[in-house]
Amino acid sequence: MSIAVLVNMHARHGSEAVGDRIRRILPQARVAVTQSIDEARTWIRDEIAHDRPRVLLSGGGDGTAVSLLNELRAQHLTVPAFGLFPLGTGNGWARATGVSGTKAAFRELAQLGNGVTPPLRSFGMVLTEGRVTPFAGTGWDAEILSDYRKMIEAIPPEDRVASGGTKGYFRSLFTRTIPRHLRAKDRPRVRVINLGTPALMIDPEGRPVLMPNGGHGAVLYDGPISVGGAATTEQLGLGFRAFRFAHLVPGRMAVRVYAASTLHATLRLPWLWRGAHPLPHDHNWLLTRCRWEFDRPVPFEIGGDLVGERTEVEMSLADETVPLVDWGRMRREK
Do residue 157 and residue 298 come from a single domain? Predict the structure, then answer.
């Protein structure tokens, strides 16, 4: 079976040593250890485009996988069976495919080395600004990501692995992001406008129901926002179940606005983290397309990567799906 693997050196657990270990497990695989998107782009153009593998593995975090997918799209290449090999910090998308850590991923990798054909799962994607992604949004998550990266960059390179992960994420949250919001005088406001098929909302029992007056052009929400976005995957990483309804209705993406104050949310963080429903000041829909209009520039992230500030964004369910390697099913069928 033809396998190609990209390892991102800038991922939390990415390194030449990891690349060498993969080569030992998969001696026939083409393994590239890259340090930039330009190197990845060249590898795709020179290696993947001319000899398409049956399985392509992305070694990094969610941002690595999203960048790799969109580079394939940019070069007009059909996405082969796509496996998420978690070497990043949050690895939210990888968790959706049944593998949550690097050690577990190496165990699954050994099965591919034994010639096992991996089962696949067709995974829907969000399309925004010409890119496909399993999630995109704004608010605390984007700010925490920015704060976390600034904190990690201030740590000596030899100490970054030990200082990262869940522990580092929460340190950044409680020492940087939350204090800044507690000092803020007001929060951004957003209008969420439905641009697709009639909106479904989530009732208190967690069931999808048709939203009254929620057709094309309807303003679904107009008010303050603390965090929000659209997703086709339940988790944003580190076990944060931010979009628990992402797989509830096929052909829809989960859209959420959480509007509670910083203090209110901090006191209810355990419920937020596990995706409890219903929650005060929480708004959930299942949509095919929408536009968000903000009253000021806000940070916007696509698949775990900050892309700058925006005053308006559109998000829709992408026409194409991605054939993801289902590590969980492969493990059960062993």
Answer: yes
Q: Is 201 helix (H, G, I), strand (E, B) or coil?
A: strand
Same domain for 282 and 170, yes or no, is: yes
68 & 8 share domain: yes
| pTM score of the predicted model | 0.90
CA dist 38 to 127, 137, 206, Å? Answer: 23, 25, 44
Residue showing tokens 């990262």: 164
Cα–Cα–Cα angle for 172, 308, 237, rounded to 5 degrees = 45
Query: SS3 for 4?
Result: strand
The mean per-residue pLDDT over the stretch 234-245 comes to 87
- Calculate the CA dihedral of residues 108, 109, 110, 111 and round it to 10 degrees: 60
Report the DSSP beta bridge partners of residue 322: 123
Average per-residue pLDDT for the chain: 89
CB 144 within 8 A of CB 173: yes
SS3 content of the chain, % helix, strand, coil (to 5): 35, 35, 35
Range of the domain at 299: 135-320
Q: Is 300 helix (H, G, I), strand (E, B) or coil?
A: strand
For residues 107 and 143, membership in a common domain is answered with: no
Q: Compute the radius of gyration of the chain from its Cα atoms.
A: 20
pLDDT in tens, 137-185: 997 666 666 676 677 667 776 565 555 556 666 777 777 777 776 677 7
Assess whether 163 and 196 both reside in one domain.
Answer: yes
Q: How many separate domains does the chain show?
A: 2
Instruction: Give the model confidence (pLDDT) of 266-317 as tens digits.
Output: 788 889 889 999 999 999 999 999 999 999 999 899 997 889 899 999 999 9
- 327 and 316 housed in the same domain: no
Using alpha carbons only, give the angle 46, 51, 52 rounded to the nearest 5 degrees: 110
